[in-house]
């Protein structure tokens, strides 16, 4: 049986790679890409920030392998880290906008 933490880790790694190699493609539905002047730079910024929940998921996989009884409990830090990362990205989006504020 594949642990759920490992599946979360693989999904986050794929998301991080997708942002890293997205180029000019808009991937986030909550961001107004028309106001962003350098979309590839913004996507790389998001990819770097996505390393945080990926690292949290990797730690959870290791801990779940060492302590299998904690597998269910170790699911919760990953969504919390994703939520924090989304807020982190959202707060700094205006630094990439055209208006220069």
Describe the protein's architecture and organization.
The longest helix is centred in the first third of the chain and has 17 residues. Helix 1 packs antiparallel against helix 2, helix 1 packs antiparallel against helix 3 and helix 3 packs antiparallel against helix 4. The protein starts with a helix and ends in a 10-residue tail after the last helix. With 101 residues, the protein is mainly α. Helix content is 58%, strand content 0%. The radius of gyration is 16 Å and the shape is elongated.
Short structural description:
This protein has 101 residues and is an all-alpha fold. The protein is built from four helices and no strands. Helix 1 runs antiparallel to helix 2 (39-49).
